[in-house]
Amino acid sequence: MSEQDGRDREFDWRWAAEAAHKEPSARARMLAARWKENPPGPVPFRAGPEPVRRGRRSSWGSTAVVLGCVAAVVVLLGYINFRAPH
Question: What's the pLDDT score for residue 80?
Fold first, then answer.
Protein backbone atom coordinates (compact mmCIF):
# COMPACT_ATOMS: atom_id res chain seq x y z
CA MET A 1 0.00 0.00 0.00
CA SER A 2 1.46 3.35 -0.95
CA GLU A 3 1.38 6.50 1.16
CA GLN A 4 -1.20 8.04 -1.17
CA ASP A 5 -3.61 5.15 -0.46
CA GLY A 6 -3.29 5.84 3.28
CA ARG A 7 -4.26 9.49 2.81
CA ASP A 8 -7.26 8.52 0.70
CA ARG A 9 -8.48 6.21 3.42
CA GLU A 10 -8.38 8.84 6.19
CA PHE A 11 -11.70 9.58 7.78
CA ASP A 12 -13.24 12.83 6.52
CA TRP A 13 -14.64 14.58 9.63
CA ARG A 14 -16.31 17.36 7.61
CA TRP A 15 -18.20 14.82 5.52
CA ALA A 16 -19.35 12.99 8.66
CA ALA A 17 -20.45 16.20 10.41
CA GLU A 18 -22.50 17.27 7.37
CA ALA A 19 -24.28 13.91 7.07
CA ALA A 20 -28.05 14.22 6.68
CA HIS A 21 -28.85 11.22 8.88
CA LYS A 22 -27.03 10.49 12.13
CA GLU A 23 -27.72 7.20 13.86
CA PRO A 24 -28.14 7.43 17.65
CA SER A 25 -25.73 5.57 19.88
CA ALA A 26 -26.57 2.17 21.32
CA ARG A 27 -27.15 3.73 24.76
CA ALA A 28 -29.52 6.34 23.29
CA ARG A 29 -31.48 3.59 21.51
CA MET A 30 -31.64 1.51 24.71
CA LEU A 31 -32.89 4.45 26.79
CA ALA A 32 -35.46 5.43 24.16
CA ALA A 33 -36.86 1.89 24.14
CA ARG A 34 -36.91 1.74 27.95
CA TRP A 35 -38.53 5.17 28.33
CA LYS A 36 -41.19 4.35 25.74
CA GLU A 37 -42.61 1.74 28.12
CA ASN A 38 -41.72 3.42 31.43
CA PRO A 39 -40.92 7.15 31.15
CA PRO A 40 -38.70 8.64 33.86
CA GLY A 41 -40.25 10.85 36.53
CA PRO A 42 -39.51 14.53 36.91
CA VAL A 43 -36.16 15.40 38.46
CA PRO A 44 -35.62 18.69 40.29
CA PHE A 45 -32.98 21.00 38.88
CA ARG A 46 -29.56 20.29 40.42
CA ALA A 47 -30.91 17.93 43.01
CA GLY A 48 -28.04 16.68 45.11
CA PRO A 49 -27.96 13.73 47.45
CA GLU A 50 -28.26 14.33 51.16
CA PRO A 51 -24.90 14.51 52.92
CA VAL A 52 -23.84 11.18 54.33
CA ARG A 53 -22.82 11.23 57.99
CA ARG A 54 -20.56 8.33 58.87
CA GLY A 55 -19.92 7.92 62.54
CA ARG A 56 -19.87 10.59 65.20
CA ARG A 57 -16.43 12.09 64.55
CA SER A 58 -16.58 15.83 63.92
CA SER A 59 -14.37 17.78 61.58
CA TRP A 60 -12.30 18.83 64.62
CA GLY A 61 -11.70 15.19 65.43
CA SER A 62 -10.41 14.52 61.93
CA THR A 63 -8.19 17.60 62.15
CA ALA A 64 -6.76 16.39 65.46
CA VAL A 65 -5.98 12.96 64.00
CA VAL A 66 -4.18 14.48 61.00
CA LEU A 67 -2.17 16.92 63.11
CA GLY A 68 -1.29 14.11 65.53
CA CYS A 69 0.03 11.98 62.65
CA VAL A 70 2.08 14.90 61.31
CA ALA A 71 3.54 15.55 64.77
CA ALA A 72 4.43 11.87 65.15
CA VAL A 73 6.24 11.87 61.79
CA VAL A 74 8.16 15.03 62.70
CA VAL A 75 9.23 13.53 66.04
CA LEU A 76 10.22 10.25 64.36
CA LEU A 77 12.30 12.03 61.72
CA GLY A 78 13.95 14.16 64.40
CA TYR A 79 14.79 11.06 66.44
CA ILE A 80 16.26 9.32 63.39
CA ASN A 81 18.31 12.43 62.54
CA PHE A 82 19.54 12.68 66.18
CA ARG A 83 20.60 9.02 66.24
CA ALA A 84 22.41 9.16 62.88
CA PRO A 85 26.21 9.36 63.16
CA HIS A 86 27.64 12.67 62.00
Answer: 87
